[in-house]
Amino acid sequence: MTTRRFTRRHLLGSAAAMAGAFALAPRTALAADPIKVAGIYTVPVEQQWVSRIHKAAEAAQARGDIEYVFTENVSNTDYARVMREYAESGNTLIIGEVFGAEQEAREVAADYPDVAFLMGSSFKEDAGLPNFAVFDNYIQDAAYLSGIIAGAMTQSGNIGMVGGFPIPEVNRLMHAFMAGAAEMKPDIAFQVSFIGSWFDPPKAKETAFAMIENGADVLYAERFGVSDAAQEKGVLAIGNVIDTQAEYPDTVVASAIWHFEPTLDAAIAAVKAGEFKAADYGVYSFMKEGGASLAPLGSFEGKVPQEALDLVAERSKAIKAGEFTVEINDEEPKSS
Q1: Measured between alpha carbons, how far is 98 from 317 in angstroms, rounded to an integer?
Q2: In this structure, how many other beta carbons lie within 10 angstroms of the beta carbon of residue 5?
Q3: Virtual CA dihedral for 6, 31, 270, 115, nearest 10 degrees?
Q4: What is the four-CA torsion angle of 54, 55, 56, 62, rounded to 10 degrees?
Q5: Residue-wise pLDDT tens digits, 31-58
Q6: Could you give the strand order of the β-sheet that contains 2-5, starting from the edge strand earlier in sequence?
Q7: For 260, which DSSP code?
Q8: Residues whose CB is less than 8 angstroms from the CB of residue 225 and which lie 6 or more positions away in sequence, other chains included
Q9: How far is CA 229 from the centre of its chain?
Q10: How far apart are CA 70 and CA 54, in angstroms?
């Protein structure tokens, strides 16, 4: 378990604060004062999903809205203890992910009603626990668009998909990606596998190798390690949550990006206004809220069929205007 502290002078970045309409007892500090925020993560902050939360917190600290500390590599069995330590040490807002410690985390929150908790969760908010809000990365819009690109780039009509666990936050992105790919090739085949870990690049890589051996020429890299396999075997990959094209310029064609800034900024504004309450902050991950985007094509500019680019542009405009809705399907995806 590793704890780190960032000071403002070490950080650069900016993000626009978003108002929230949420109720926790007002604090005595002035609204303009930075609030103390702690992050608790079960994986290294370099891991895709957590890195986006961490990046948003860094940006909020850089502009003076928060004072930020965090602990990474916290086991699920130790999560509640770390939550209590941060609550006892005067943090006003605690953020993290409690997928493996749901009950324990909510029990801790109940003991600290004056502390706001914003946690990644597979479950919804509870009105009986007014200081515990939830969020999730609802970036199905961007995943769908990246699927369109993948469907246009596969020559074999066979796409491999490697995920961590078949939980809603992973399943919905895979289904959206598959729907996008099918827009370009209705008879496309998918190989779907889960490695049972959020951070095991070697296992993800070996799983991807097997898919390539079985005919996949495009891989959906929901986990680290997949793009390494694609690069070694000379096939293409589609990224998830972060853009890794700089590390794989000839491999990663496109990526669905999660922007956690709208989610965190809404929570910060609510806490400062003394209006934080139980709510589902997942809506801030939607593309129309600025919470998701398709990464620039970069080194693949001019290499993606125009038909796919036209459809991406058309769908992007419609999604942002609320005229096209990407289905949210949380069921476990299957190979086809």
Answers
A1: 34
A2: 9
A3: 60
A4: 110
A5: 478 999 999 999 999 888 899 999 999 9
A6: 2-5, 66-72, 35-40, 93-97, 116-120, 132-135
A7: -
A8: 162, 200, 201, 202, 203, 204, 205, 208
A9: 22
A10: 9
328: its two tokens: 């949210």
CATH architecture classification, 140-258+305-320:
3-Layer(aba) Sandwich (3.40)
Burial of 303 (0-12, 13-18, 19+ CB in 10 A): exposed
Place of tokens 């066979």: 158
Joined tokens for residue 30? 């002035």
Total-model pTM = 0.83
Interatomic CA distance for residues 273 and 286, integer angstroms: 24
User: What does the DSSP 8-state code read for residue 34?
Assistant: P
Domain at 2-136+260-289, CATH from 3.30.1450.10, 1.10.3430.10, 3.10.20.30, 3.40.50.2300 = 3.40.50.2300
Q: Dump pLDDT digits (tens) for 218-266.
A: 999 999 899 999 999 999 999 999 999 999 999 999 999 999 999 999 9
Task: Count the Cβ atoms, other than its own, within 10 Å of residue 60.
Answer: 26
List of residues 6+ apart from 286 with CB closer than 8 A: 138, 141, 292
Which residue type sits at 70?
F
Same topology, domains 2-136+260-289 and 140-258+305-320? Answer is yes
Residue 17 DSSP SS3: coil
Ramachandran assignment for 209, one of left (phi > 0), alpha (psi -120 to 50 degrees), beta (any other): alpha
Map out the domains of the chain as residue ranges: 2-136+260-289, 140-258+305-320
Helix (H) or strand (E) holding 158: strand 158-163
